[in-house]
Write a structure and sequence with these properties.
This protein is of the alpha/beta class and 529 residues long. It is 22% helix and 27% strand.
């Protein structure tokens, strides 16, 4: 019976297997379909990521090309540029008041920013609201219409010197535009956007390096000046502000428009041969050589050219200044006593005032921006931001020149944070030292020397070197680590061991040689269209 029951079960099992036949294939197909869907999803995501990355890369190419146009313009405006351009000197509304630098690609591409409807039309210009252009802004982030470009009579054009310009490998910026800045350049009807809403919209805007601010020319104290350049030539801290705008467009269509507001770093030093700013100045020991001298009579253009200066130079400031200017009467007494010796060298310090020419300039020459530690340290920081060469040294562990500190043909700004052993080097431009400046009698420098921080300078040994220009010392920081800023100026110190034929000769041309060697951005922005 058991065998019969066993046999009777066989057809049932076979029937079940028959009904389940093909399930593996169905499951396999479903799994294949799921895997295919996942694969297609991953492929789609990969393509999307690739497209996003490509768009981002192209946008970045446009951005950095735009910045390249801004930087080429800034570099070509400096006085020592090997590819100089003549920046506009007339306010917008006059002939040649707008300069374009164009940078076409290869294949005969033409860049005409003033032509409405052209591929690279300047559709940002109408946002500037220059007085006299007759244009109205269409609103924020809206391109200017085709008929709202700059008047042709206002413009002039030069070619880019960018590598590969006019080839398919050219940088993607198409043009850069330069104008002087007006008080109402970016007003668009909003008073808060004026530099000074109390002044006329077409008033020229100047930049004051020491104060770190823009100001309409009509608000500059000391006289009525026709423009910023006239004020600057009169020895006022007032550099013209330029608006530089650049358009970059890639072949894929990415577009970036950026702007700089730039101004030349302008340092109008006090009119001194040697300035010792602060109370109770110390000059000990003084030079023992009968040939060493300090002369406050401006050697002017003749002294500038005879010492190797090139290019135009218009002497500024008074024709005669003190040989040594100090911050108070105590400083005058200290140095007079020291110079009377023995040996007596008073006749070798010539300039305004008595003989020796040592004058108290505490309330006159060293007034304003040259009178407080915070203002002087702010000046140093501004110069440090645009320095060609920077040294980071310690107080008590001086650096020595590791390369050029400027040449007559190419003056530069050298910034030293700490002590600097200048030795018997030769240099030109602007030298800023926050610690102690040490040098020998063979040291040569043409330009402006600012020892602001520890306010100490030391000369050792004789030699035939000398300084043409101006030397200024001010103690603005404590002598104790971490050398915090003082509330009021401390005592500046100078020692001069030996001397030989070394000298300090005041020359207003060399003292101002750093002006215009660097243009610094005082404002940056990007237009969102």
């Amino acid at each position: 019976m058991n065998n019969q029951q066993s046999n009777s079960m066989i057809p049932v099992c076979r029937s079940r297997r028959k009904r389940e036949a093909g399930m593996a294939l169905v499951i396999s197909l479903l799994l294949l379909l799921l895997i295919s869907a996942i694969g297609l999803g991953l492929l789609y995501m990969s393509n999307t990521e690739t497209a996003i990355n490509g768009n981002y890369r192209d946008s970045q190419v446009a951005f950095y090309s735009m910045r390249a146009g801004l930087e080429e313009t800034r570099d070509r405006m400096r006085t020592t540029s090997p590819w100089p351009i003549v920046a506009p000197v007339a306010m917008p509304g006059n002939a040649n008041s707008i300069l374009y630098i164009t940078n076409p690609a290869g294949g005969g591409e033409v860049v005409t920013p003033t032509v409405g409807g052209s591929a690279y039309f300047d559709d940002e210009f109408c946002h500037e609201t220059f007085v006299g252009d007759g244009l109205a802004s269409p609103g924020a982030n809206i391109p200017c219409p085709a008929g709202s470009g700059p008047p042709v009579g206002w413009t002039t054009t030069v070619n880019s010197i960018s590598p590969n310009t006019t080839t398919n490998s050219a940088l993607k910026y198409k043009w850069a535009r330069i104008t002087l800045k007006e008080n109402g350049s970016f007003a668009n009807g909003v008073a808060a956007a004026y530099v000074d809403a109390t002044q006329a919209a077409n008033t020229q805007v100047c930049y004051q390096t020491l104060a770190g601010q823009e100001i309409p020319i009509t608000q500059i104290a000391g006289g009525a000046y026709a423009n910023c350049t006239a004020a600057q030539n009169a020895g006022v801290d007032a550099s013209p502000v330029y608006v530089v705008t650049t358009l970059a467009v890639t072949p894929q269509g990415s577009r970036r428009v950026g702007q700089y507001e730039i101004a030349a770093v302008h340092i109008s030093p006090p009119p001194v041969a040697l300035g010792l700013d602060g109370p109770a100045a110390i000059f000990s020991p003084t030079p023992s050589s009968n040939n060493t001298f300090m002369n406050g009579v401006d050697s002017g253009l003749a002294g500038y050219t005879s010492s190797g200066g090139t290019g135009a130079c218009t002497p500024t400031g008074p024709a005669v200044v003190p040989a040594i200017t100090v911050g108070d009467a105590t400083g005058v007494n200290n140095i007079d006593t020291q110079l009377q010796g023995p040996p007596n060298r008073t006749i070798h310090y010539t300039g305004t005032g008595p003989t020796p020419s040592v004058v108290n300039g505490g309330s006159t020459t060293f007034s304003g921006s040259w009178s407080t530690p915070s203002q002087l340290d702010s000046l140093v920081a501004s110069i440090a931001d645009v320095a060609d060469t920077t040294y980071t040294c310690g107080i008590g562990t001086p650096c020595s020149p590791a390369g050029s500190v400027g040449t007559i043909a190419n003056p530069q700004i050298t910034y030293v944070n700490g002590d600097f052993n200048y030795g018997n080097a030769s240099g030109a431009g602007v030298l800023v030292v926050t610690g102690t400046l040490s040098f020998t009698g063979n040291a040569v420098f043409n330009g402006l020397i600012l020892v602001i921080g520890q306010g100490a300078m030391t000369e050792s040994g004789g030699g035939n070197g000398g300084f043409n220009g101006s030397v200024f010392l001010a103690k603005t920081q404590s002598s104790t680590s971490p050398y915090p800023e003082l509330a009021t100026l401390g005592t500046p110190t100078i020692s001069w061991n030996g001397g030989g034929n070394s000298f300090i000769q005041y020359n207003s041309c060399w003292a101002s040689v750093g002006n215009g060697t660097r243009y610094t951005p005082v404002a940056t922005r990007e237009e969102m269209y």
